[in-house]
UniProtKB/TrEMBL annotation:
Residue span, Glycosyltransferase 2-like domain: 4-122
CDD domains in UniProt: Glyco_tranf_GTA_type
GO molecular function, one term: hexosyltransferase activity
The organism's place on the tree of life at top rank: Bacteria
Keywords: Transferase
Name of the protein in question: Glycosyl transferase family 2
UniProt signal peptide: none
Cited Pfam families: Glycos_transf_2 (PF00535)
Entry-linked InterPro entries: Glyco_trans_2-like, Nucleotide-diphossugar_trans
Organism: Chryseobacterium polytrichastri
């Protein structure tokens, strides 16, 4: 395997070298693509020192040297990456020594276009730990609950499998054939400043044949600290609902132009509608009704819904 590791860099000077070193340990990693996104700390200087350290490390910035977000930075990384396989790594996280063990075997099967695994957690600050655990309880592993491949992955991510599939697998634990991304014209939605990873993974699970790798133990570690954006938003707050609405609108617009299974279209539509209604009315009562409708679609019988599903 020849792998390009894409690392978007924004205000991660404190963590970046550890992330890069964790990728350099693998002979399969032929290049590490750093995309510096106009950090306000000294991340750019750290990047410039790292590219001298190893010829596999390459540094890029956006054409205007501006800040464009993680989605745009990953897209630039995809444009610059030269290897057959693509992996991602957040600048404040790191790979473990078993990161590509499953991939080396699974990708021998030609139909497999992507492999995903589990990531663990390292608490870097006490405040970060408190915020993370208040939102996600005491979750030690971000993973799925059972091995899956093909359409089961898509349905699992949308909560449509008989057994709960689990959380979204993290980009840190995903490896994908670049040819599959090119063939399906897949990239990150740059209009989403958050949740662009969830959007990308859902679309990827439909267009590409994914298979689970190591899901019972971590292959990478997420660093949890004071500045993790994922822990800052209170669930069902106006800001949370706005960000969820943008995610599900992106998925709804996409699903409207692709022949997804009917139950997948229904789930995406109902979730999108619930957040849309919540924002328009500001009434959690109606939002909760639609959340219940997502679990039990038969209770929702609006003409608009059936018009959409039958077209």
């Amino acid at each position: 395997m020849q792998i390009s590791v894409i690392i978007p860099v924004y205000n991660a000077a404190e963590f970046l070298e550890k992330a890069v070193d964790s990728a350099l340990q693998f002979n399969e990693v032929q290049e590490i693509v750093l995309i510096e996104d106009k950090s306000t700390d000294n991340s750019l200087e750290v990047c410039q020192k790292l590219i001298v350290k190893d010829s596999r490390i390459k540094l890029y910035q956006h054409a205007d040297k501006g800040n464009h977000g993680a989605g745009a930075s990953r897209n630039l990384g995809l444009e610059k990456a030269n290897c057959e396989f693509i992996s991602f790594l957040d600048a404040d996280d790191y790979y473990l020594s078993n990161r590509f063990e499953a991939e080396k075997e699974i990708f021998k099967e030609a139909k497999i276009e992507g492999v995903f695994g589990a990531i663990g957690i390292e608490y870097l600050t006490e405040k970060g730990k408190e915020e993370f655990q208040s939102k996600f309880k005491n979750i030690s592993l971000t993973t799925v609950n059972f091995p899956a491949e093909g359409e089961t992955v898509l349905k699992g991510l949308l909560g449509l499998t008989p057994t709960v599939f689990g959380t979204f697998f993290h980009l840190n634990a995903l490896t994908i054939r670049k040819s599959a991304l090119v063939k399906n014209n897949l990239c990150f939605n740059e209009n989403l400043r958050v949740h662009q990873d969830s959007d990308f993974i859902t679309k990827l699970a439909y267009h590409c044949y994914l298979k689970s790798g190591i899901i019972d133990k971590a292959i990478a570690i997420r660093g949890v600290h004071d500045n993790n954006r994922i822990t800052k938003i209170i669930r069902y707050s106006p800001q949370y609902n706005q960000r969820q609405f943008l995610l599900w609108k992106s998925l709804y617009d996409w699903s409207s132009t692709n022949p997804l299974p009917l139950d997948c279209k229904r789930k995406i539509y109902l979730t999108y509608t619930s957040f849309d209604l919540s924002l328009k009315t500001g009434l959690n009562k109606y939002f909760c009704i639609f959340l219940e409708a997502i679990k039990n679609p038969q209770i929702v019988k609006t003409q608009y819904r059936f018009t959409y599903l039958n077209r």
